[in-house]
Amino acid sequence: MEPQGAPVQDDCKFCHIANNLTDTEILMSDCEVVCFRDLKPGATHHYLIISNKHIDNCMKLQPDHIKLVEQMKDMGMRILQMNNVSDLDDIRMGFHVPPFSSVPHLHLHVLAPGSQMSHKSMLRYGPQSHWFITVDNVLSQLKTQGKVK
Predict the structure, then answer these.
(1) Quick one: pLDDT at residue 8?
(2) Among 147, 63, 146, 68, which Cα is nearest to 106's?
């Protein structure tokens, strides 16, 4: 796979992954986003979808990023389907809010099945987590911001 050609921040490991500068197994990619397995899975299926373009975190997103976030969500759904996750209502998909982001590069967590996550994983990725915001909530907020202009 050729490097994507996106600008690389020297100290950002996800920029390196997005540009195929590591040995990370890329499961799926397109011109905007890349998918790979999380190194510390919080569920049976735990994937990360990152943007090729460096964006620090979900709090830096603007209304003009709606298409990018939708692409990330779409790739998350496709990787789950590709891996035979049949109950797409039993998933968790979202972003950690700083300072709880482990890597300062926008990355969407895609986890399934949500109902079988451990207590520790539920604290990190579950609906009661104060630092995990779902992709649908992010999209809703961005769309609302876009209408306010």
Answers:
(1) 67
(2) 68
CA distance 9 to 21: 12
Q: Looking at residue 3, what is its pLDDT?
A: 42
Distance of alpha carbon 119 from alpha carbon 135, whole angstroms = 21
Domains of the chain: 13-143 (3.30.428.10)
> How many residues are present in the chain?
149
Residues with a catalytic annotation lie at 107
pLDDT band at 100 (very low <50, low <70, confident <90, very high): confident
Stated pTM of the model: 0.92
Over residues 103-113, mean pLDDT: 97
